[in-house]
């Protein structure tokens, strides 16, 4: 039926009349027909339900994750992408084949300074946006500082997931996935150690703040600490922990003993409060009156996030343990309170592919130092094992000090600590770890390539031997095994130092623990030099002086870049002067300056059967006990 285009139309009139005539009882029918001819349909407004909002949130999160994945893929294909506001003025980070890789030897710092140091090579830096955080360098400088950390500091690549972190820098600062301020400041403070001064100075000139006499790295470390204290709201706790670890590295680099001691202790306790010292399937067992405290961190959303948490704990643990090797202070966490798996290899970590727990080792495994599964071993995993080994050595030394020292003072000591089962077990662990290292990991130096993590691993058994035996060494007694262990371990460390100085490798990249190892070797050799002087062993005095000169000159040269090395050089010089007198110290000091000026780094030949001279009463007392019972324990007949 056709419509007659009236209002109301004929069709609506007939329909209304029919409705009036046949309406059921109790149903009201309007008196006038409701004609809708030629009217647009009213579209009702959408009513947003909670379910709709939840679905929208899920879709938004998926979009954000896809955007992050795209940024990660872009960074993996071209790490320099997005580093500069101008493609023609982009900065080239100097690495072999322009690729950032921890397994290759980066080009020298001097070459980087030459390429980056000229102000004419600086790009046109972008103007800071309103949303860009204050006191943070522009994005191009920030990315280069981060890349400097990943390239030159091996531990950074385990503390932070490099592709994810570099991609997060491209986000808007208001995005919740943008790194927190303390972490950015800590990255800047550490990264500036490896960059040309003119690069950071350029930012200082652009900044409106008054930096005074402080350097860029000092300012960034100060900002990291202040923002960590002021911005801590209970969110992003893992990032605050990462920032705290990096700030501890910086304090250790600057030889700020008390700062790094306090910070490393608080960092490790924070890691424990986040439950990072434990790993499933080991539950937290509490007494019945104590209520279970839920974890502060939610469950990890991915394999990568889970491994980052594990790496963060091991980095906090390693910082406190390695720093603690240079002093006799008590440690913050007992090894018995750790039930954590060792990390995965770097390739598996950066790939983000889930790895089964089957075959992975735990910190409490009985064969931790004797078994190194091929699929679950790399330099960083061995590095963590070496830290665990040093921790057990120091714990035993601290306990033996409190157990035997009072009897030694009263001259009533009845037993040589080296004869008990614990000492024998610890020393056996040290020997086993050194002997069972896989062949491909026993050489930290291959040609001109140096692996800083492996270098620390190889140094660890010798440092552990010195820590175990130095307090018992009766220098001067041919039958004293402790004196022999000290001198052979110290000279093994000198051999490793000689090997690295004969390459083109830049020593500032070697890390901080090797500097402690070199200083310890120099301190031990100084004791033998004093004993040789007392016995007028002129044939040994020249050799020992040459060895100390080599150590002192190397550490002093490194002190131009690392404040910690400069402090150790002063300590070794003071120790030499107090032990051997001003004349010997002045002679060694003069020889060290001459070698540093001439660029020499060779170690003179030496006699490994050098006579050992008596020095300490403590070593004499223990030696008398051992000689009275030569067949007890592990000592040879």
From TrEMBL:
- UniProt biased composition (Polar residues): 95-110
Q: Where in the cell is it found?
A: Nucleus
- The segment annotated Disordered runs over 25-51, 95-116
Q: Name one Pfam family in it.
A: Fungal_trans
Keyword Nucleotide-binding on entry: no
Main subcellular location of this protein, as a coarse class: nucleus
Q: Which residues form the Xylanolytic transcriptional activator regulatory domain?
A: 260-349
Q: Where is the composition biased (Acidic residues)?
A: 35-49
Q: What name is this protein filed under?
A: Xylanolytic transcriptional activator regulatory domain-containing protein
Domain of life (superkingdom): Eukaryota
- CDD domains, sorted: fungal_TF_MHR
Mark the transmembrane ranges. none
